[in-house]
ABC transporter permease
Amino acid sequence: MTELATSPAAADEAPAVEETRGLWVDGWADLRRRPRFWIAAALILVLLLMALAPSLFTSVDPAVGELSRSRQPPGDGAIFGYDLQGRDVYARTIYGAAPSLAVGFLATLGTMVIGSLAGLLAGYSQGWADSLLSRIGEVFAGLPFVLGGIVILTSLNEPGEIVGAQELVFQVVLTIVVLTWPVAMRIMRAAAIETAQQDYVKAARALGAGPFRIVLRHILPNTLAPVLVYGAIQFGVFIGAEATLSFLGIGLRDPVVSWGVMIAEAKDRVQDIPWALFFPAGFLVVTVLAFVMMGDAVRDALDPRGR
C-alpha cells in the first residue's frame, strides 16, 4: 500500500493559505449584508460610467461656450445652467469626472505600491533598513500637504509655462504620492511585523525558506487587507486633494476639465452664478462620501475583531 507523502514546506504553507482564503471569503460574505456597501457601490458605478463613457449622459461639448448664454440659470436648455463663458455646466460636470477619478486612482495606486513595498521591507527586516525607511517616512509625513503641494508643483512649472493635460495629471499624482506614501508604509510595516511573528512564518524560516519566498507566500497575502482598506478610503480623499490643489491654482487647470478646476473658476462668481460652483462641488462631495463609505464597509468586513 502506497502512502501519500506531504512535504514540510507544503504542510507549512497550508495554514497561511487557508487563513488568508478564509479572511477574504468571510469578509465578502459580511460585506454583501451591508446596505452601506451596496449604496457606495451603486454610486461608484455611476461615477465610473460618467468617467469612461460621458457620451451616455450628454452630447454637449464641454469646451464650447457662447457668450450670449453667459450666466444663464438652470433651465430647459441646460439643467445645471451656464458658466461665465457660456459653457454648459452639466456637460462640464459630467466630463469632469474622468480627470478627478484618474487622479484619485493613480494616486491611490502609487501610494499603495510604494508604501507597501517600503513597509514590507521595513517590517520584515526590522534592522537598519527599517530605521532608515522609518526616518525617511517621518520626514515626508511631517510636511504639511498644502505647503508641500505648493513647493513641489511650483518647482515643476515655470511661471506662465503652458503644460499639457497629461503632464498636469502626472504632476498632481506625483505630488500626492510623495506626500502621502508614509501612511501606507506605516500600515504595512505594522501588519508585516505582526505577521512575521506568526508560527507558520517561523516554521517556514526554520525549514530554509528564503526571505523572498516568505514575504511573497506568507507575509504579503496576510497584510493586504489593512492596506486595501486604507486605499479605498484614500481614493476619495485624494480626489478632494486634487480639488484643493486646483482651487489654489497650482493643480489641474484649463484646458483640463475637472471638478476642482470648475470650482476654482467659479469661486469669485458665487453671487452671480452660484450653480457653476454648487453642482461640481456637490458631485465632488458625493464622490468622496461614496469612497469613504466603501472603505468603511470594507474595513468593518475584513477586520475579524469587528465581527
